[in-house]
Task: inverse folding
């Protein structure tokens, strides 16, 4: 599957940088079912919702589910779906985000 368009808040310089690195996603990733064996899933789960969504807001339904289901830690990030590129400010760097998630474990 070809990559989605870059988020509208991506700078032209970042679009160029991203374009050089983006590749097609193998379709099998979407077709192959995940088979879990054994007991219930007990791993910690966190969902990070990037709040600068496109009009389609593809990930809103997953964010709402994570907020409402027990066992999920929910976080919001002021970024589009490419937070490694579009997140701004020190609160969006990886270290504070990891600390925020770790604190909720």
Result:
């Amino acid at each position: 599957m070809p990559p989605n368009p870059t988020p509208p808040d991506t700078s032209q310089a970042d679009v160029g940088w991203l374009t050089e690195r983006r590749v097609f996603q193998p379709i099998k990733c979407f077709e192959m079912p995940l088979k879990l064996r054994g007991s219930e899933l007990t791993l910690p789960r966190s969902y990070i919702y990037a709040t600068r969504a496109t009009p389609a807001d593809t990930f809103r339904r997953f964010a709402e589910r994570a907020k409402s289901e027990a066992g999920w830690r929910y976080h919001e990030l002021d970024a589009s779906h490419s937070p490694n590129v579009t997140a701004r400010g020190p609160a969006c760097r990886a270290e504070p985000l990891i600390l925020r998630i770790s604190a909720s474990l």
